[in-house]
Amino acid sequence: MGRPVAVVVGVGAELGLGAALCRRFALEGHHVLVAGRTADKISQVVRTIEKDGGTAQAVVTDTTRESDVVRLFDQAMSPGAGLDPADLIAYNAGNNRKFDFRELSAEMFEDFWRIGCFGGFLVGREAARRLVPLGRGTILFTGASGSMRGKPGFAHFAAAKSRGRNEASHGRRWDCNWSSNQSTSLAC
Ligand SMILES: NC(=O)c1ccc[n+]([C@@H]2O[C@H](COP(=O)([O-])OP(=O)(O)OC[C@H]3O[C@@H](n4cnc5c(N)ncnc54)[C@H](OP(=O)(O)O)[C@@H]3O)[C@@H](O)[C@H]2O)c1
Q1: CB atoms within 10 A of CB 171
Q2: How many independent structural domains does the chain possess?
Q3: Which of 142, 154, 156 has most ligand 1 atoms within 8 Å of CB, for mutation?
C-alpha cells in the first residue's frame, strides 16, 4: 500500500479555504494535488507544503472545462510510484464577491453558476466515476450559508444526495451530509 492522495479543486490565495484544506490534508500524510486556475498561486501553495515537510504537486485546472477535470482525475488515479489512487476529493472553487444584486448582469450570474455549480457537477461526477470502482472515498463540497440561499450550494447537496442514492443502488453505501458549516460531504 502506498501513501494516500487527496485532490483539492479551486485553490488560490494562501489565505483561502482551498489552500488551508491542502495544508491540512498534507499534514495528515496525504500527497496533495493542488488544482486551481492560476499557476503562480497554486505553485506557492505547493512550496509552503513542501517547506513544512509534506508533498504536493500543482495541476493547473479550470474546473468549468470538462477536459481539464478529466485530465486532473486521470492524474489523480495514477499518481505515480509509492502513491495510492486518490480517495479524498474537495471542491472549493468559488468567486466570493460582494456587490449589489441589482447590478448583477446575466453574464456575471452565468459565470458564478459555471464556477459554483457546473464545475461542482463535473468534479463530483468524475470523482464518483473513479471512486465507485475503488469502493471507498470521500467527496467534500465547501460552501457558505450564502451559497445555500443562492442555490448553487444546495444544488451540490442535491446532486450529492442523488449520487449517493444512485451509488447505493449499485450495492455501495454512501453517506451524504450537510454539516453545520454548510459543507456537503459524500463518503463510502
Ligand atoms: N473562506 C472562508 O472562511 C469560507 C467559509 C465558509 C465557506 N466558504 C466558501 O468556500 C468557497 C471558497 O472560499 P475561499 O475563501 O477559499 O474563497 P475564494 O477566494 O473564492 O477561493 C476559491 C478559489 O476558487 C478558484 N477558482 C475560481 N474559479 C475557478 C475555476 N474556474 N477553476 C479553478 N479554480 C477556480 C479561485 O482561484 P483564483 O484565485 O485563481 O481566481 C479561488 O482561489 C466559497 O464558496 C465560500 O463561500 C469560505
Answers
A1: 8
A2: 1
A3: 142
The CATH code of the domain that includes 143 is 3.40.50.720
At 179, the pLDDT band (50, 70, 90 cuts) reads low
Structural contact between residues 122 and 139, judged by C-beta atoms closer than 8 angstroms = no
Q: How far is the CA of 137 from the centre of ligand 1 (A)?
A: 23
d(CA 67, CA 165): 26
Q: Which domain holds residue 32?
A: 5-187
Residue whose CA lies nearest to ligand 1 atom number 2 = 17
CA 146 – ligand 1 centroid, Å = 13
Average pLDDT of the residues in 5-31: 97
- Is 96 close to ligand 1, i.e. is its CB under 6 Å away? yes
* Residue entry with cell 442555490: 151
Q: What is the pLDDT of residues 57-115, one digit of tens each?
A: 999 999 999 999 999 999 999 999 999 999 999 999 998 788 899 999 999 999 999 99
